[in-house]
C-alpha cells in the first residue's frame, strides 16, 4: 500500500479531562476513498481537525506524504483540502473572489481555467459573481467544496459534506468525487448517509466514543458481518415450528403466516428448507430476501461495541 497519510498513536484529551480520542493508528493509501463512520460525538471531527492542523493532539504523530503535520505545518496544509461541517465564508464576497482568495492563501496564483473547472463541476459558474449571502444553503455548501479544492490538494477531507443538502448537490458531489479519484486524489469522508459510503468507499472505519473500533475493506466487512434473511410466506398459518425444522434458524411471525430465516451469505440451506417444508405439507406462496446493508452492520457495531472482536 502506497501510504499517503499515517496516523500513529494519536489521542486528544481536553483540559477539562474529557477524552475525545483514545490512541488511534491508521494508514490511508494514496488514491483510496476512506469512509469514517460514527455517531455524533464519536470523535470523527476531532480526528479530522488534528490531521488538518486545526487541533493539536495530546499524543501521537500525523504524517502527510512523509511530512509531520506539526513540524511541517505549511507544507502539509497545502497538501490537504477540508470541507468542514460549518459554513465559514465571507457572506459579502462573491463566489469567484472567495475561491480565488482561498487559492492564493495556499501560495497558488493564476490558473483561472482550473478555478472555472471547479466552479462548473459544482454548478457554480453561473453564480460566480453573486455574493455568498444571496445563495441558498445548498449553494453555500458548494462554495465550501470549491474553496477546499481551490489549491489542488492531494488529500480531500469531507466532513458530512451532504448533510442537509438537496439531492442535486449530492449527485454533483459524488460525480466530482469520481472525477477527483480518477486524478489520484485521496478522499476521506464522514457521513450520516451510510448508503453513500456503501456505494463509494474502498475501506470503512467505525469510530465510537473516541475509539477506532474497526478498519476493513468494505466488501470484506460486509461479507464477514453481513447477514441475509428470507421471509417465507405460507399458504396456511401454523401454530408452532415443527421439530423437523430445528436445523434452520427460523422464527414464526405474523400469526404463523410467515417464517423468517436468517443465514450467512454463503449459506446453501434455502433449497433444503423449501424441500423440507414441502415434505411436511407446508405450502409456500412467496419469498422475500433481504441482505444486510452497511448501515445495518454499523448500527450493530456501535450499539454493542464491547462485543466487537
Automatic annotation (TrEMBL):
Family annotation (Gene3D superfamilies): P-loop containing nucleotide triphosphate hydrolases
Origin: domain of life: Bacteria
Keyword Nucleotide-binding among UniProt keywords: yes
Any coiled-coil regions, as ranges: none
Keyword Nucleotide-binding: yes
Domain ABC transporter as annotated: residue spans: 5-234
GO molecular function: ATP binding; ATP hydrolysis activity
Pfam family, one: ABC_tran
Key words, A-Z: ATP-binding, Nucleotide-binding, Transport
Protein's name according to its UniProt entry: ABC transporter ATP-binding protein
Source species: Sphingomonas aliaeris
Amino acid at each position: 500500500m502506497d501510504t499517503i497519510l499515517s496516523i500513529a498513536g494519536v489521542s486528544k484529551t481536553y483540559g477539562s479531562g474529557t477524552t475525545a480520542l483514545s490512541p488511534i493508528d491508521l494508514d490511508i493509501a494514496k488514491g483510496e476513498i476512506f469512509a469514517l463512520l460514527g455517531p455524533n460525538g464519536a470523535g470523527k471531527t476531532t480526528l479530522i481537525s488534528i490531521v488538518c492542523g486545526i487541533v493539536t493532539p495530546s499524543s501521537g504523530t500525523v504524517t502527510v506524504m512523509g511530512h509531520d503535520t506539526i513540524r511541517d505545518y505549511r507544507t502539509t496544509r497545502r497538501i490537504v483540502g477540508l470541507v468542514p461541517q460549518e459554513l465559514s465564508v465571507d457572506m459579502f464576497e462573491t463566489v469567484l473572489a472567495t475561491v480565488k482568495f482561498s487559492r492564493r492563501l495556499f501560495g497558488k496564483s493564476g490558473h483561472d481555467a482550473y478555478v472555472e473547472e471547479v466552479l462548473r463541476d459544482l454548478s457554480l459558474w453561473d453564480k460566480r459573481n453573486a455574493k455568498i449571502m444571496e445563495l441558498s444553503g445548498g449553494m453555500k455548501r458548494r462554495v465550501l467544496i470549491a474553496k477546499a479544492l481551490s489549491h489542488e490538494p492531494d488529500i480531500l477531507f469531507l466532513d458530512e459534506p451532504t448533510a442537509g443538502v438537496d439531492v442535486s448537490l449530492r449527485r454533483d458531489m459524488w460525480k466530482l468525487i469520481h472525477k477527483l479519484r480518477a486524478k489520484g486524489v485521496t478522499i476521506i469522508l464522514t457521513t450520516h448517509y451510510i448508503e453513500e459510503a456503501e456505494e463509494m468507499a474502498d475501506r470503512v472505519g467505525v469510530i465510537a466514543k473516541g475509539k477506532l473500533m474497526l478498519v476493513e475493506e468494505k466488501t470484506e466487512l460486509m461479507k464477514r458481518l453481513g447477514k441475509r434473511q428470507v421471509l417465507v410466506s405460507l399458504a396456511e398459518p401454523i401454530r408452532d415450528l415443527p421439530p423437523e425444522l430445528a436445523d434452520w434458524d427460523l422464527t414464526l411471525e405474523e400469526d404463523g403466516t410467515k417464517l423468517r430465516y436468517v443465514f450467512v451469505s454463503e449459506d446453501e440451506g434455502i433449497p433444503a428448507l423449501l424441500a423440507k417444508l414441502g415434505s411436511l405439507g407446508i405450502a409456500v406462496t412467496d419469498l422475500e430476501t433481504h441482505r444486510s446493508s452497511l448501515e445495518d452492520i454499523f448500527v450493530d457495531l456501535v450499539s454493542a461495541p464491547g462485543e466487537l472482536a
